[in-house]
Design brief:
The protein has 145 residues and is an alpha+beta fold. It has 2 helices and 6 strands; from the N terminus they run αββββββα.
Length: 145
């Protein structure tokens, strides 16, 4: 009986140490996922710009998405950014680790990534091809630096 009590105490101590570390790993995973998404989106914008330059068009793509069911696909069939896009949050803006859009006008150029119950706003500027967030927000710095 005493051995069983010791085993239960040891398991309790291990779980008290392990659970907070797992929560930190989830946050790190959200940050890593967002950083990868941002790098992919920015790379796709540059690639689309290079395709346009070869064709003699010096403009950037004017929108990153037409619909809210798949984000970052481009603004029409001739201008594809991410072939399969990124699935938005299934619950609108309530899920951590997901993108969603806040635009009402198409094409969509304003996006939010939710992390740690905080919304980080990103905006695409079609005049210079930049996809940025407000770097005064500390979480934004973690995502783009």
């Amino acid at each position: 009986m005493i051995e069983l009590v010791f085993v239960i105490v040891i398991l309790g101590i291990l779980s008290a140490v392990a659970i907070p570390k797992m929560a930190a790993n989830r946050t790190d995973a959200y940050i890593t996922r967002a950083r990868a998404d941002i790098a992919t989106i920015r790379s796709s914008i540059v690639s689309e710009r290079q395709t346009r330059l070869i064709k003699g068009d010096s403009s950037y793509i004017y929108g990153l998405s037409l619909g809210s069911d798949r984000l970052f696909e481009g603004n029409d069939s001739d201008h594809t950014l991410l072939p399969y896009g990124i699935a938005p949050s299934p619950n609108g803006n309530s899920d951590n680790g997901y993108w969603h859009t806040t635009d009402n006008a198409k094409p969509y150029n304003k996006y939010i990534y939710r992390i740690l119950d905080t919304d980080i706003s990103f905006e695409y500027n079609a005049s210079n091809g930049k996809f940025n967030c407000d770097t005064s927000v500390s979480l934004c710095k973690k995502l783009v630096d």
